[in-house]
Design a protein that fits this description.
Elements (H helix, E strand, L loop, with lengths): L3 E6 L4 H12 L3 E6 L2 H11 L3 E5 L5 H14 L1 E7 L10 E2 L2 E2 L2 H26 L10 E6 L3 H4 L5 H21 L4 E8 L12 H9 L10 H13 L7 E4 L9
Parallel strand pairs: 1-2, 1-4, 2-3, 4-7, 7-8, 8-9
Antiparallel strand pairs: 5-6
Helix pairs in contact: 1-8, 3-4, 4-6
Bound molecules: nicotinamide-adenine-dinucleotide (NAD).
Length: 251
């Protein structure tokens, strides 16, 4: 589809940036929604023409409306890839007392509410497009294997990602009649800037936990799966683990 546009949230780094690159290489125009203007400009310089950066927060209605409008202006919005998200670690009770309710709400807001906000606004825009080969568009969300086996200190993060996984089927059921598919990817360990906060020894030890391949995933491997999902019309309403067989231990 020569005029197909993809909206990639969190597309200025890590999994989102690799996905934006993959979709550009496949000939799609790409709109990136992200918070950092500086990293947005870097991403546009790297991806070249037909890439637009829209600064904003996925949980803010008008920011997402602006990004969706921009995507529709550049062509026909056919793909949405939600990669924006944040990590978080805190035990429910620690020496400093109970888990901060504010922090719990912030994680849910960025990862779950933000994803839903993008889905609802993008799907509304997609619904107004002409179908091609029986489809209007595809929405890919990013959960985490923590949705299924959250580790110690991951109550907020795991809850937010379990929400993303849990809404996948009802979203696909809602949007199926509009010829829109919804699929979620649940990555295991992927070597992105988000993982750089870990000490090197801890990072290496975590990589050893992956049965095969015994290493952290590469962002391009995530992007490759997203590209496949966009092209394969039978994948719908499902959360696909991409984790080399890893099942997270409790800590
Ligand atoms: N890297 C991993 O091992 C891993 C594993 C499982 C799930 N994930 C998920 O994959 C997604 C991408 O993570 P990544 O590893 O590429 O990390 P990353 O930090 O490189 O990228 C996340 C991006 O999302 C942006 N972002 C965060 N909150 C936002 C908001 N409210 N509005 C707009 N942008 C926002 C950040 O600025 C950043 O650019 C996240 O949802 C993360 O939870 C990552």
């Amino acid at each position: 589809m020569s005029d197909a546009t993809a909206l990639v949230t969190g597309g200025t780094s890590g999994l989102g940036l690799a996905t934006a690159e993959r979709l550009r290489a496949a000939g799609m125009r790409v709109v990136i929604l992200g918070r950092s203007r500086e990293r947005g400009e870097e991403a546009v310089a790297r991806l070249g023409a037909e890439t637009v950066f829209v600064p904003g927060d996925v949980a803010v209605e008008k920011d997402v409306e602006r990004a969706v409008r921009e995507a529709a202006l550049r062509g026909t919005l056919r793909a949405v890839v939600n990669c924006a998200g944040r990590a978080h670690a805190a035990r429910v009770v620690s020496r400093s007392g109970p888990h901060s309710l504010k922090e719990f709400a912030e994680v849910i807001e960025a990862n779950l509410l933000g994803t839903f906000n993008v889905v609802r606004l993008a799907a509304d825009a997609m619904a107004a497009t002409e179908p091609v080969a029986g489809e209007r568009g595809v929405i890919v969300n990013t959960a985490s294997i923590a949705a299924f086996e959250g580790q110690t200190g991951q109550a907020a993060y795991a809850a937010s990602k379990a929400g993303v996984a849990g809404m996948t089927l009802p979203l696909a059921r809602d949007l199926g009649p509009l010829l829109i598919r919804v699929v979620t990817v649940a990555p295991g360990l992927f070597d992105t800037p988000a993982a750089d906060v870990l000490p090197a020894a801890r990072k290496a030890a975590l990589g050893e936990l992956v049965p095969q391949p015994r290493r952290w995933g590469r962002a391009e491997e995530f992007a490759e799966l997203v590209h496949h999902i966009l092209r394969n019309p039978m994948i719908n309403g499902e959360t696909i683990r991409l984790d080399g067989g890893l099942r997270l231990p409790s800590r």
